Amino acid sequence: MRRQWQLCLRLARFAAVGATCFGLQAVILTVLERAGVPATLANAVGFAASAQLNFLLSSYFTWFDRRVPLSARRAIAARWAAFQATAGLGLCFNTGVFALAVRVLDPVAAAAVGVLTGAALTFITGNHLIFRNRRNRTEPIRQTQGEDLDAHRPEPARAGAASGTGAD
Q1: Do the beta carbons of residue 21 and residue 62 sit within 8 Å?
Q2: Helix (H) or strand (E) holding 4
Q3: Considering only CA atoms, which of 123, 97, 124 is closest in space to residue 111?
């Protein structure tokens, strides 16, 4: 039950981040389209910009409990690169859906359809690949059976102590 509750909370944070980033995307789309940029290109630019904000919010809000230390620059860079690859794939998917939807919907509504259809894929990828739990190698292993690895073994028989016969 606790895992389900945690998943629901994570999905709620994911949705809040998505809504925030979609807001940024919609503003950029609207401004660029009014400036004469074709809607599909304006949407792609908005999506790419919102992906950068999304990475930050995902790292520090959605998957806050899976953060890597700031000193682990390679791990952060690897996460960022994986996130960008996912965002790039998402951009292709989003743009394709947008290009179809904009034929029958307002551009912002079409962008919303693109975002919503990619959200499930993005969450699954983020949760299970990009922001997955990674054991901290410097963290000590918890002992569950005893103080050390030999705690389950019987004490070795001491000469004379166990049998009551002394060798003196």
Answers
A1: no
A2: helix 2-34
A3: 97
Q: How far apart are CA 83 and CA 52, in angstroms?
A: 9
pTM over 0.85: no
CA angle 118, 34, 55 (to 5 degrees): 35
Q: Is the pLDDT of residue 91 over 80?
A: no
Whole-angstrom distance, CA of residue 23 vs CA of residue 6: 26
Distances (CA, A) of 121 to 45, 57, 59, 114, 142: 20, 18, 17, 12, 34
Question: d(Cα 4, Cα 143) in Å, to the nearest integer?
Answer: 27
**What residue ranges do the domains of the chain occupy?**
2-130
Structure tokens that stand for 16 in this block: 């809040």
